[in-house]
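Dig into my protein:

:::
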Amino acid sequence: MKRIQYIAIYGGLIIGLMGCKKEVADPDSSNPNVLPPLTHEGKNTFGCLVNGEVWVAYVSYAIGGSQSLENQYNNEDSSIHLKALREDDSGNLERIDIFVKNILNTGYYQVYTFDNELRGFTDYSGNYNCGLYNYNNELLRSVVVTYLSSSERIMSGTFEMDLINTSCPEDTIRIREGRFDCSY
């Protein structure tokens, strides 16, 4: 009798397990080693390749909560300023800034450079002079807004740019496959 009970219990478990479906999770957009997916949901994600290496906005903790992506939207001139901060495995910080004006629709835009004065990349870990990279009007600096909804207050897009360091002119940063999805 006990044998029949064990067979019934184990048989029920096997049948129950066979009916289970394994859920496939979406890629983890907070993983600092994987580019976030291209989304249009206001997830506040930001990532790119910096000189061929994955760079994702990520800080483990900040006072008041993680501030890996800040954005400031100005209704007067339809501009947005994205400030993405990344903490590497050693605790060093890097920041990418993108400023675009007159965003009225989806489409192609140039990063506004303030006469080549806008800093695009800052490396806070090393030599300060050789850790600052600026936009230049003669170099690549494009943003493609792929989704824009003023009612949802969401802006998403892609970007790529080349940045120079005037203190170390032989040093250029190439940013490719950039993507952002922010709520403002």
Residues 2-183 form one domain. The chain has one domain: 2-183.
